[in-house]
């Protein structure tokens, strides 16, 4: 039984796996898309998305956390400078995995993993509209309170 075993070990020891994922994440940040196997792409998605979330808020603490995982100064700088500004309003889902078929040599399932906001082909037809985030139903919002007040004043007249 595999209760509570969420990490795909990818057939590697811990140090090798961590350094491989760090190198793949740096390549993804630098090139915006990379080709790899499906299993590595899924593991990389779990590895890189929390760091992109951290990069949305540029603090020294977040930079140090990301630097400890990536270990490449240029990749961290590009993540906080370019990638964070592009994904600033997105609430999650920064990467996309597209399956490519099987590799010729060993028939491994191949995939392309890319940063969603950097693909001009998919984003060409779409207008850039700011998505609203999900809010709780408690607490009053200024947008909903204003129309109610105007209706009340019109009824009084």
TrEMBL record:
<protein>
    <recommendedName>
        <fullName>Large ribosomal subunit protein bL17</fullName>
    </recommendedName>
</protein>
<dbReference type="GO" id="GO:0022625">
    <property type="term" value="C:cytosolic large ribosomal subunit"/>
</dbReference>
<comment type="similarity">
    <text>Belongs to the bacterial ribosomal protein bL17 family.</text>
</comment>
<comment type="subunit">
    <text>Part of the 50S ribosomal subunit. Contacts protein L32.</text>
</comment>
<keyword id="KW-0689">Ribosomal protein</keyword>
<dbReference type="Pfam" id="PF01196">
    <property type="entry name" value="Ribosomal_L17"/>
</dbReference>
<dbReference type="InterPro" id="IPR036373">
    <property type="entry name" value="Ribosomal_bL17_sf"/>
</dbReference>
<dbReference type="InterPro" id="IPR047859">
    <property type="entry name" value="Ribosomal_bL17_CS"/>
</dbReference>
<feature type="region of interest" description="Disordered">
    <location>
        <begin position="126"/>
        <end position="157"/>
    </location>
</feature>
<dbReference type="GO" id="GO:0003735">
    <property type="term" value="F:structural constituent of ribosome"/>
</dbReference>
<keyword id="KW-0687">Ribonucleoprotein</keyword>
<dbReference type="GO" id="GO:0006412">
    <property type="term" value="P:translation"/>
</dbReference>
<feature type="compositionally biased region" description="Basic residues">
    <location>
        <begin position="127"/>
        <end position="137"/>
    </location>
</feature>
<feature type="compositionally biased region" description="Low complexity">
    <location>
        <begin position="142"/>
        <end position="151"/>
    </location>
</feature>
<dbReference type="InterPro" id="IPR000456">
    <property type="entry name" value="Ribosomal_bL17"/>
</dbReference>
């Amino acid at each position: 039984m595999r209760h509570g075993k969420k990490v795909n070990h990818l057939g590697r020891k811990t140090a090798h796996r961590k350094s491989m994922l760090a190198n793949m994440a740096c390549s993804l940040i630098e090139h915006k898309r990379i080709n790899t196997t499906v299993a590595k792409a899924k593991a990389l998605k779990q590895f890189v998305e929390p760091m992109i979330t951290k990069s949305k808020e540029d603090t020294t603490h977040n930079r140090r956390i990301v630097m400890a995982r990536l270990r490449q100064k240029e990749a961290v700088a590009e993540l906080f400078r370019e990638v964070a500004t592009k994904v600033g309003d997105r609430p999650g889902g920064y990467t996309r995995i597209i399956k490519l078929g099987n590799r010729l040599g060993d028939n491994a399932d191949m995939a392309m993993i890319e940063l969603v906001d950097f693909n001009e082909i998919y984003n060409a037809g779409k207008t850039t509209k700011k998505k609203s985030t999900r809010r709780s139903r408690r607490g009053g919002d200024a947008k909903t309170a204003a129309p109610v007040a105007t209706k009340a004043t019109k009824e009084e007249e």
